[in-house]
Amino acid sequence: MQIAGEEDLYSIMLHAPVGICILHAESMTIETANIHLLKLINKQAEDLAGKSYREIFTLAKPGDESALKIAVEGRQHQDDKGTMIQMLNGEKEIVPVTFVYKPVKNNKGKVTHIAIWILENTKEALDEELAAINEELAATNEEYAAANEELAAANEELATTNEELLETQENLRRSEKLFRSIALNIPGSLILVVDRNHRYIAIEGDIMERMGYDRRDYEGKHPSEISPERYEASRHLYERVLSGEKFSIERKAETGEFYLIHFVPLKNDDNIVESGLIITLDITEIKQAEEKSAKLAAIVETSDDAIVSKTLGSVVTSWNAAAERMFGYTAEEMIGQTIYKIIPEDRQNEEPHILSSLITGERVDHFETRRQTKDGRLLDVSLTISPIMDKQGKIIGLSKIARDITDKKQEEQRKNDFIGMVSHELKTPLTSLAAIIQVAQKKLAQSEDQFLSDAMEKANQQARRMATMINSFLNISRLEAGKLLIEKQPFDLGQLLQEILEETRLTVTSHIFSLKECSNLTVNADRDKIISVISNLISNAVKYSPKGRQIDISCKLNGSMVIVSVKDEGMGIKPDDLGYIFDRYYRVETNHTRHISGFGIGLYLSAEIIKRHGGEIWAESELDKGSTFYFSLPRAESPDNL
């Protein structure tokens, strides 16, 4: 059986004098049932909706499973061999019925629903009993048969007429209930039925009152009696649908709501239009979503940043105009292709790493990388990556925003080259100046002029500070140029910490230092670079904590890594600043730190050195209580460690 549309299904349900149940073809759950069936099994519509077929028809034979399967495959099946159904009429009663399973297909021929027709078989038994009674009555009243023959015929005709009338009335009552049930279960709808004279036959829907309709004022009346102006404005639409035309229009109410109105002609068995069905649906939310989608599309297309979406298989699904300008590929060239088309060979591992991180629920912060254009140029880009989710919150794809930062990178490179050049040029005269200061300091060591002696000591300290800053700038310049060499060799970390601390105690007398748990720990690292990291952390602890406070240095073994910590009792760091302290040139600005000198390069350089050793660096802090800085290094495989 082929159902062309909802109006055909509705017509079948409306006029069927037998029990009908509609199942969803995949889940086998009941979507609707007509009044005849509800009466037969003594249940309400809400008792059946969404329930499993097997849960409701518990007395059906096991063979029904194969019948359902046949219907799902697109073939009709009938089972009239005593299949039973439960019926309640005061008390439980078993009634023999026939089940007819009819597949319902969409316009593509796919089975989407199963219509189950349930026919009562009790009429045959009643007919047999009635025949026996009639035979006995005929034998008893044989002598009166001729006299009453004409009267019996008349009574029989009258009885038939009464039965037909009662059946018609019952069908009308069922049809009305079914219509109202269907109408109320269509969300955001108003359904009208008009006859050929445009008179209202029925009206129902959950937005009926909102749209100013009252069933009592409309049913059985002509629209000209209720609102002549509205009728004149809609009259041509009624005439179109009653002439057999099926169409839809959109309307916007004065209050801002959007409505989609379907006009459907209803025909009888002779294909003659008997009435018109008018279905009004509230599509305000859909229109608002369309407007938002249009605005978003406009933003995407006019953005100066490349905005690209792709599947979890890295296949490009959208490619805006900025992406075309930035990478040189048109949307036609990229949509359907993988994003690897613009990823350089040395960065192919970035994509699977991003995918695995997002799928496992990790956040992927924006980062800087390189991408390749159609003509082979490499662009420095900043990427922001967001997951695309469906209504259930499942990740189904990714959205990327790429910004061309080539000019920014070139400017940074020019700045780094300048800093490196200036630092290198300053290093030679500063070395000479430091040597002169040290010679002068030795000659003034026995001088009676205490001022000159103290001045030379302070000059020597400032020269060392300047040398440290210049070395830091040079290291940053080398780092940015990829020329910061890491020369690893095994050494005793505890011994190195002891040497640094002894030297620090000679020059810093304002704080108390302690070294704990740092024996027999060998690491494989660049000794000079690690000295720079530790010295910077100790120097920061001194700068950012009051005089006389304790500074603790400790180290411990954690698996294959050695963790070093420097703890102070200083001012601490705010949580908002803690995530940025290892960024280049970043400084925490407070009333307490403004008088403390620095360029925000020490922690950045330390972090880069530790990363290049395969370790990590981090900090924990609490305002007014102090901070603890940690870094980890791989433990060296030496005989002492085995």
Tell me what you see in this structure:
With 642 residues, the protein is an alpha+beta fold. The two termini are 80 Å apart. The relative contact order is 0.04.
Q: What is the overall number of helices? A: 20
Report the principal-axis shape. elongated
The assigned structural class equals alpha+beta
Rg on CA atoms, Å: 44 Å
Report the mean per-residue pLDDT as an integer.
77
Helix share of residues? Answer: 40-55%
Question: What is the tally of beta strands?
Answer: 23
How does the major sheet shape up?
6 strands, antiparallel
Low-pLDDT parts are none
N-to-C span: 80 Å
Strand content: 25-35%
In short:
The protein is an alpha+beta fold. The protein is built from 20 helices and 23 strands.
Topology:
Blueprint: H1 6-15, E1 19-24, E2 30-33, H2 35-41, H3 45-48, H4 53-56, H5 64-72, E3 77-79, E4 84-89, E5 91-105, E6 111-120, H6 122-140, H7 142-184, E7 189-195, E8 200-204, H8 215-218, H9 223-226, H10 228-242, E9 247-252, E10 258-267, E11 273-282, H11 284-302, E12 306-311, E13 316-319, H12 321-327, H13 331-334, H14 350-359, E14 367-372, E15 378-389, E16 395-404, H15 406-443, H16 450-480, E17 489-492, H17 493-507, E18 512-516, E19 522-525, H18 527-543, E20 550-558, E21 561-567, H19 575-578, H20 602-611, E22 617-622, E23 626-634
Parallel strand pairs: 18-20
Antiparallel strand pairs: 1-2, 1-6, 3-5, 4-5, 5-6, 7-8, 7-11, 9-10, 10-11, 12-13, 12-16, 14-15, 15-16, 17-19, 20-21, 21-23, 22-23
